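HUMAN: Would you supply a protein with fold tokens?

ASSISTANT:
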Amino acid sequence: MSQLTPAPDAWNFAPDEALLGLSALSVRSVLGSIKAGMDPSSDRPVIPLGHGDPSAFPCFRTAPEAVEAVSAALHSGKHNSYPTGVGLEPARRSIARHLSLDLPYELSPDDVYLTSGCSQAIEIVCSVLAGRPGAHNILLPRPGYLFYEARAAFNGMEVRYFDLLPDSDWEADLGAVEALADRNTVAMVLVNPGNPCGNVYSYDHLAKVAETATKLGIFVIADEVYAHLTFGKNPFVPMGVFGSVAPVLTLGSVSKRWVVPGWRLGWIVTNDPNGVFRRTKLVESIKSYLDISCDPATFVQGAIPELLANTKQEFFDKTVEILRQTADICWEKLKGISGITCPSKPEGSMFVMVKLDLSCLQDIKDDMDFCCKLAKEESVVVLPGCAVGYKNWVRITFAIGPSSLEDGLDRLKSFCSRHSETKK
């Protein structure tokens, strides 16, 4: 019997530098590096202010109607088979009906494509855009969710960043968008409500975004995974409202509003009354990609119609009220911490961005050093700004239990006070 003898290095599976660099862009990787330096023998409870998953806290438990919908789907015995590539028709129909409530036109099930969470929706969109003939680029917000850059770069597509303006409630710098775009630009990404900034865009600003996209001949990728999680002056307005001005790909999921990120059910929706995506065969490309990708669990798809129809408004109101309270706690406590500046009160999502004044902080080199030392000394985990493309800022989540948040922010204050003392 012959024995397989691989050529030298043929079975060397060490990731190349490019893949390592892309992995380093992930929030998971950055938080893992920070936690690795913590003292495992410490008896202080860890306060997780760097994550985007509040589901571990009882006050953020999902709606009982959602649990019942999944249970019923499992017990029915009707959802044990493979689904179609685009997703089960009843689920797509119910999502289309649900999203149409906020739009001036009706979506159809054919406008909805189910994905394994919003992350896979990003992966699919970036892969489809990169697969078009010729060199293309995509415009991304800074600060922003770097998973977009990782997926675009993985597919060989160029990314260009436009700034969000902290002194203007994190509005997009549309002048920069126009300056960055060229004939090879295909789309711009807008996250609303904002991760990592906690902002909510006004109707007027979104209208200007649509006008800018039309002027440039590009479309908008609207990441609305935090849809309706708003508690400030601006109500949530879906970008799809302006779909007749500029075509919009809306990405969303049940992860945040229902507080079930582990259920992995997301979607891509074509908000395109003028049929641009069909004429340019983008829809055809999305379907083709879905044929060779993994699907969200069929029983979760099967639960979607009941989940959407039966979840009571009281559940959503309670979630938003808790976020309003914790955002207030965060805003008030951050005011009294030396070495930190918060440019605006968060009005949506689960996060706020704060700027570090390194000139006031002794022995702190940068945002990553700040986060590593904070975790080690105080057992408080926050996300460094480098993980969202904003050096020497940090992102703090307030989507945890109020008492834990107060404890974490008090520890943050102690840390900053200690490191602000002038050394003799």
Remarks:
- The chain has two domains: 27-61+314-419, 64-310.
- The domain at 27-61+314-419 is CATH 3.90.1150.10 (Aspartate Aminotransferase, domain 1).
- The chain has a mean pLDDT of 93.
